[in-house]
Amino acid sequence: MECQTMLKVDGLSLDYGEGSVLKNIHIELEKGQHACLIGPSGSGKSSLLRSIAGFETPLNGTIYLRDQLVYSREINVPPEERKVGMLFQDLALFPHLTVKENIAFGVLGRDKNAVSKIVDELLDLVGLSDFSARYSHQLSGGQQQRVALARALAPEPGLLLLDEPFSSLDNELRSELLKDIYQIFSEKEITTLMVTHDQVEAFSVADRLGVLIAGELAQWGSPFALYNEPVSKSVADFVGFSSYISATLVDSNTLHTALGTLHCAPVNNAKIGDTLKVLLRPETMGLNDKSPIKAKILKRLYRGADSLLTLSLNNGETFYINSVNRDDLSVGQVVGVEPLVKAVVAFN
Amino acid sequence: MPAVLRDGWTWAASIPALLLILPILTVFASLLHIEWAVWRHLADTVLSDYISNTLLLAFGVGAGSLLIGTVLAWCTTQYDFPLRNSIAWLVLLPLAVPAYIIAYCYTGLLDFSGPLQTLLREFFGWESGDYWFPEIRSLGGAIIMLSLVLYPYVYILSRTAFAEQSESLLEASRSLGRSPVQHFFKIALPLARPAILTGTSLAMMEAFADYGTVKYFGVNTFTTGIFRTWYGMGSEQAAAQLCALLVSFVLVLILVEKFSRRKISYYYQGQRNVRPKRKQLSRLSSFVVTLLCLLPFIFGFLIPVVMLISWAIEIGVEQMDQRFMHLLINSFSLAAFAAICVVSLALLFSYAKRLRKNLTISLPIDLVSLGYAVPGTVIAVSVLLTLTSLDKKLDAVLQDWWGISSGLLFSGTLFALILAYAVRFLAVALHNIDSGLGRIKPSMDQAARSLGANRHRVLLRVHLPILRASVLSALLLVFVDIVKELPATLILRPYNFNTLAVRTYELASDERLTDAALPALAIVLVSLLPVILLTRAIQKESNTGGGQ
To answer: Which of the listed residues A184, A216, A234 is the one where a domain comes to its end?
Structure first.
């Protein structure tokens, strides 16, 4: 099967007139891929989604959907002709229409029977066949989400945009629903792009993950790369727990640190002898009483399955460690620590 | 004895409530004794006129208000155009002009001897009979007059409905392949329909209640018919029965209104309030929209008020004599006193509902608060019937036992008038007090008590400051409604007791329109007060809402 580019955003910039919201964004999604956008609030995640859907008019750049140009300086295809589905944060169900009528709303140019068949299939798919005659105010939060999903899927969009649609649900319901609907997306080979502020959610569903910081796409890649090989300190800080210790670059990929000698990928613009910062994720460090490197426990955050320890080295540098719960760990105690990985990431 | 009946609040609230329902019940009770002779006469002569004119008037006004109100609401919420902010409140001003007053103004303006026709004749050299000119004193004229001052009901409600439709609904429509025009007809309009219907039914209730306009224009409707049957034919029973018939029309409207209001609350549940972004218009269309939106203000307020002012100037200041001052004092002191009575009752009812959540209290209160829909004429007739029979019984009892006559103790006095106002305007006061009291959460009482305040201190330090604004606005609204009220005052006022509204009506009926200008202008000025309050609220809303 040929790989088709479903979405291509090139050099996209957006400006509401009060400073730029999006700067020079590049994104590419292939058919069937699931991507997530994360980033601090106000970083422009929703604006990017809305530009793709056609609700915002960008300043510069181009947007292609299925290799068709939908936005450039000369062309601006209206949202209703882009065939892009969208799940809204407030769901935007039409309150005066029944579940069935809501789902049928976007099915155009079919005869009655065909529409009704499509709607029934979708109702079945989201498990709401018994609720077709209800109005949205008669449904629970989770059911409303499912209706919104079925409605968005009804016109068979190639690309579905999700704007934090699950933020109003509690955690348990959310992860369950998420599993169900991404199952549906995979079966139907729907390409998705979701904005979320929940990193666990993003990591669990995404093939491609993007971090937007202050309107710039700081990194776009696989979830693994984003977590383990962040391209900048701001990405590293935003994704997961991070702490840093200083290091001296002794050759292009070797660092001297208080934790011993560590290896790293070549660092941009760094010269031998420069002082760099090494990223330490809590799970990349371990406790080992035999280790010659000693650190003092400053804080202990008990988290049930494990503990997050804040440790301080002799030189005063602090970092985090994930540790299994041990009875003998207490604040003020000095323990031996060791790096569990051979290669680390360092920044200027 | 059930616990409910041993409770002081239950008695204190339900007895006055039942007393206020009594007059309307009397009207319906009149249906038990039908005077066939009178009805045959009515049926042969004017009844079909009453019915058709009343319905045509109500539906005509409904359609007119719906059209003007909805278009205004849509334009001011969806588009950006010059003067949009000012227009949003200017178009509320016609609310301050009672329908009978706008009718006098346009009659003066459009009459054969009025400035417009005189000008036309002079300009074209026409003589009388040379040309056709629309007759303002007609059913059509009455529909236009009432629509011009009643459309704000539709405007206010549908404006909120359009403004509260989340922008994401439009985006959802478009992402599902529908154009903005399709969105308007499939989503925006149906969603606003309950609000539009509510506003329209309020306007239609006012049309049913109108007496001053139709009387002046010589259109036979139920309200004028009730007067004529009562005073002209001397048949109290038949008048009461006409009242009952009219009230049953109104009941249908009440049902529509209540049902629609419930729907509104469903429709706007759980929407994130992302205000719609207002669209920019091209230069030409924004000019057209501005002009279009100014028309209701020009015709509903500016022209009649300019007319009144020019008349008032014409007759000069000497009219502002002692007699006029007396009229003012009469009108205002009556309205103030009655407003205090009505608001006190509302406070009593509202507290009773809050403290005792049972049907014995809430049902009679809910029934009384339907009084806003009952035409003033009907309320006056029912109050008069009830009190006269009470007076007669009291008199008979006193004669029997002590041989003294009490005369007309209630029916010929201000008591009757205040009772009628209470029936008609309690809902206005209750609505304000209820929402004020609703802001005082039970947990606030508990918090104050736990902080060591006793009941009195809670009332003084917590309730009173929070309620004050609601009480004041209730007082103001009821006060102004009473100043404007014509038919009930006309029927129930004590002998030789005049108010601004009655005087305006009398002078206009005597074709002394210029002389009527001064009291009419006074009514309009007073009526502007609550409208200004309303415009402030709307302006605040339109300043905070809108494009981000």
So the answer is: A234
